[in-house]
Amino acid sequence: MDHVAALTSDLIGRESEVVLFEVERGAIRKFADAVQDQTPACLRGDIAPPTFPTTFRMTIPGVTFDLARVLHGAQEYRYERPLRAGDRVRCRVRVANVYRREGRLGEMTFLILTMDGTDESGTPVFSGTTTAIVR
Amino acid sequence: MTGPVLVAGSDLDGGSVLPDLRKPPITKVQLVKYAGASGDYNLIHTDDETARTVGLDGVIAHGMLSMAFLGEYLCWLAGPDSVRRLSVRFVEMVRPGDTLTCRGRVIERTSVDTGRRLQLEVWAENQRAVRVTIGEAEVEIT
User: Fold this and answer.
1) Are A52 and A22 in contact (CB under 8 A)?
2) Is the Cβ pair A54, B38 closer than 8 Å?
3) pLDDT digits over A12-60, tens only?
4) pLDDT grade for A4, boundaries at 50, 70 and 90
5) Are strands B21-22 and B115-125 parallel, antiparallel or unpaired?
6) Is the pLDDT of residue A1 over 50?
7) CA B32 – CA A75 distance, rounded (Å)
8) Contact: A74, B33; criterion CB under 8 Å
């Protein structure tokens, strides 16, 4: 189970680079279409649906696992304001915690990742917390 | 779709039950579209063979798709400018063919400078009334 063995508490505090993401109108519309989101401002591509930050994908050096063995346990987002087309957000993701726990499916590794996004002047726009469970 | 359901002055308090939002049945095409739109290419959501290698009967929906439904629910209830927080746990698997309905109730209403803040309990349940994704949310209505 090498993919789990690599996930240890040594990773806590490790983080991605800061990545600049542009919120594109077309990407908002594509996301809203996939979700069948009927919110008019989202269908027009003006305002991003609340879970749009999931599209901001970043990697953290040393954090690797077999995707097929990962369960998404929980997710939280907090917002200062909605994301809009044309926004440029600087994002970073960090390992907040790693721990193991015995579950009904055997030993599982819990990986807690936090993400934050700011505008170009450094003002917070949103933050997120992901609980990933690796079997 | 008309404007937000929860407008300023609407008579809601702790315990009030919110209207529900029924989504169309989830299809495999939708999962492929969501994979592309979100960038989540985990094949357990789009490839039955991969899903079976990890002990599933076939593909399962992205948990984040059900969370996106709840995000839409909040926008429908309060308007997209009003959403302050959404926090969920993915407790049951969702499969193609399932039909999810978003439901919720008000936990607490507080007054803030700019209007009212509502703490909500929200969840998505399937056609068997099983709650698949459960959570809490906060919206601010000015």
Assistant:
1) no
2) yes
3) 999 999 999 999 999 999 999 999 999 999 999 999 999 999 999 999 9
4) low
5) unpaired
6) no
7) 21
8) no
Radius of gyration of chain B (CA): 17
- pTM here is 0.95
State the complex-level ipTM. Answer: 0.94
Token pair listed for B137: 């949310």
Residues 6 or more apart whose Cβ sits within 8 Å of residue A119: A87, A88, A89, A90, A125
CB contact under 8 A, A78 and B84: yes
* B58 vs A contacts (CB less than 8 Å): none
Distances (CA, A) of B125 to B86, B93, B130: 17, 11, 5
The yes-or-no verdict on residue B115 having pLDDT over 90 is no
**Are A42 and B80 a contacting pair at CB < 8 A?**
yes
> Which residue type occupies B18?
L
**Strand, coil or helix: what is B75?**
helix
Beta partners for residue A110, in sequence order: A99, A133
> What three-state secondary structure class fits B11?
coil
Locus of tokens 């000015």 = B142
Distance CA A34, CA A122 (A): 31
Cα distance from B92 to chain A (closest Cα, Å)? Answer: 10
Cα–Cα distance measured from residue A99 to residue B125, given in angstroms and rounded to the nearest whole number: 30
pLDDT tens-place string over residues A52-65: 999 999 999 988 87
